[in-house]
Amino acid sequence: MRSGPGGARVGGGAALAGTALVASVLAATALALRPPAPRSVLADPSQFSAGRALLELEGLERAAGGAHPVASAANRRVREWVVGELRARGLAPRVEEALACGRYRACAPVANVVARIPGRSPARPVLLVAHYDSVGAGPGAADDGSGVAIALEAARALLAEPADRDVVLLLDDGEEAGLVGAQAFLSDPVAREVGAVVNLEARGTSGPSLLFETAGPSAFTARLFGPGARVKVASSLFPAAYERLPNDTDLTVLRELGVPGANLAFVGGATRYHTPRDDLDHLDPRSLEHQGENALALVRALAASDLERPPPGEAVYFDVLGLAVLRLPRPGATALAFATAVVAIGAAALSVRRKRTRLGAVALGAVAPLLALAAACAAGYLSSRALGLSPIERPWVAHPAPLESAFLLSGAAAGALPAAALGGKAGPAGLRAGLALSLALLAAIASLAFPGGSHLLLVPALAASALGVVGCFRGASFGVGADSAAAAAGALVLFPAAWLLYPAMGQGAGPLVAACAAAAVLPLAPSLAQLSRRARIGAAAAPAILAAALAGLARIEPAADANHPERVVLSFREDADRGRARLLATADLGRLPPSVRAAAAFSPSPRMPAGLLTDPPSFEAEVLALHLPGPELSPMEVAVQGGRLRLRGRLRSPRGATEALVALPPGVEVESFSFDGVAVPRATGRRTRGSRGATVYRRLGLSPEGTEVEMAIASPGPLEVEIADASPGLPPEWAAAAAARDRAAVSAQRGDETLVSRTVSLRPR
Length: 765
Hints:
Blueprint lengths: L4 H28 L17 H15 L8 H16 L5 E8 L4 E12 L8 E6 L9 H20 L6 E6 L7 H6 L10 E7 L7 E6 L2 H7 L12 H6 L7 H5 L6 E6 L18 H19 L11 E6 L3 E6 H24 L5 H27 L15 H49 L5 H17 L4 H30 L4 H12 L3 H4 L4 H24 L9 E10 L4 E8 L6 H4 L21 E5 L8 E10 L2 E9 L6 E6 L5 E6 L2 E2 L15 E6 L6 E7 L5 E10 L6 H5 L5 E2 L6 E10 L3
Parallel strand pairs: 2-18, 3-4, 3-5, 5-7, 10-21, 10-22
Antiparallel strand pairs: 1-2, 2-4, 6-7, 8-9, 10-11, 11-12, 13-14, 14-19, 15-18, 15-20, 16-17, 16-19, 20-22
């Protein structure tokens, strides 16, 4: 079917207008997702003020003096500072100390700080949670110093204007060691009183505060979120996607309380996460303001609600340009999706009956979304792979704008592809009817298979189907305008997801970002179909070419710089049995900086180190052993009882290391394991095994006397286990290797460390 000159002019104008409208929605989305300006220290006492919270954060940084992991002297100083700040507000904080073991087979001595802020009623208080420990590599200004500062500022505001019920602050310890502080809190008497939980986190240093996870009935939490905040960013897509990621927070443990909960975090600037650049200089005060406003508003809303009988039910919800949160009960969203499919089928049948199009044309149009989404995913993947970096080891780059633009433009090209490939045969009416039908059917499937994200298809399908029905009774000019309206409606829900996926997931989000952009542009395909064949091809080719150019630019841009550093982590490993030593280096860019490579004879490429206590593939250099004393496991009992090998012994570090590790070979079934009489729970986290499938147990905060180990395995043995002790930093002999990193390279996570290991054979006596 060939369009005449008049149709081409109408289609061209409509396509330009629609493109401008969709671009405007993208720009509005970018503006809407900007965190609000920080309030000053002179703000109303009942309001949250980032200006005041920053003063708290400065005090925390002075107390810590840098990194403050669990069981460190700096950690103790931070705790004492927190207790002092709470007492200065007239509160009576208590410190609950315990040896706790968490879901990642890690045990540590933790000291949780708990304080109760009086409200108008003491019944079922709201729990506001942040953790005050950091990783070993960085000061943790955002993760989770920001949460501590927000909790202290919220306490001041709640004292100035009490909530409807008490609020309990839990500033817990050992989150970075495996959520052990939250695990210890489950035994606290106040845990049985809690009626709701708000947890504060950060996975970066900037960006808007997101409601990214809920516990309990999501419809209840979604209804309460946002009324007291200036910018509301929430989507049921976030928790649905988060469930599929290998991440946990304190809320993962606190779900066991069985009460409604919410997780708030900002995720921009993730290149600094768990590095020395997570400091006050790089923390965006606007993100602190947004997170604090959301936390305080949600705490007050929960305190004003019926926490004794929270209404059940799950919801599909999303914000509209940060202005309001729209929600539907999940069953209602599913019913609406299927009703939309029925409407789309009726509209397509009516179009055929009124001879506006042919059944074959509708069938071709129904292929359009599948073609566009498949092409978008492929183009987004290719754009991300153009970087030549691992999406796991290096998800984010220093200057992501070219890459993000490439994702969006490749999606736009894919959205225009059906007009180029199918427009001539299907025609505008066939594309319009088939597209609405296919989107509606996909939305119905998504409502069952992935309900949290189903609105990304439901809203475009609903708009296209409803406008398609009206278009059956109106002229062709209405259909052209309807295309733009449907595209704008879809873009309102699709572009926020597209904008936030890269900060959340990095380059691995390329296919999803492109798919969102394609789905937003796709409703314009019928208007594009009225253009000449050359113009249709150009409409798809132009953004594709520009996307390829931007992907090329992303490749030549530096992947790291001083503010967005690469991660180069060094580890000195010595085998005390063999008297051999290695210097290991992991590098997220897949290559070592020349200055670090010159420090030792590193292997040309990463390889998996020997032993059970291994890192991921690392650059490895054989170095002179320092003959450090190895860890000792002194068995007090090794016996077989009921066909099970049982061990009771003492594990200690003669060199005074602060951490002990026990690694069991793959395939060994451990029935029980404990440190100092505290049972390690069966691992339920998402990262529970070593690189070689070993089962690894960690004891942090090791005293000079060591730790008592008890273990039972489901076989009579004998068994060889690997034991090790670990201490932060490198030996003085290798300090120069750490100093060889330039400003664009930093340590990360646990930081550089020294580890001495040996193998112990457990044989019944």
